[in-house]
Write a structure and sequence with these properties.
With about 180 residues, the chain is mostly helical. Helices cover about 65% and strands about 10% of the residues. The protein contains seven helices and two strands, in the order H-H-H-E-E-H-H-H-H. It has a two-stranded antiparallel ribbon with strand order 1-2. The relative contact order is 0.10.
Amino acid sequence: MALEHAILVSLLEQPGSGYELARRFDRSIGRFWTATHQQIYRVLRRMEADGWIAAEEVAQEGRPDKKVYSAAGAGRDALSAWLREPVEPETVRHELAVKIRAAAFDVPAALVSLTAEVERHRESHAALLARYLTGERRDFPDPSALTAQQELQHVVLRGGIEYERMTLAWLDDVLATLHRLAN
């Protein structure tokens, strides 16, 4: 997937400025596709030049004008073509898992620092799960009344929720193993 596709999806959900898109990436899409603010702005300029998106200058009181972007016909066509392309299963690069395996070859005292590292990861995943659950309650309070678009958004969020729950269960298992080995 190219960043262009993630931006098109976000703009189809709701037009926005570069700043608003960057915030959306920080809050939601960024867990599935990361991009820096600079990358987003650079790709927006290219997409506008290629006719994939349209920009409208919007005056702001007391601040510089802003550009609000929306998907154009060529962008919708590009996204439609991309949707029909096969996607290969992704491989996972998980540095923490490699560190955990590597601990078998280090001194037992390394388990203490590894435990702290795993606990830090656990806190991060627990916080993200809490944000996902809060967003689910806010954005999808009545799952029986969702539009098709909302159902697809919700199923992706549910995937994120389940991924975080699975990761927390694994991290709890790792912590229990580390504690058992340290004693």
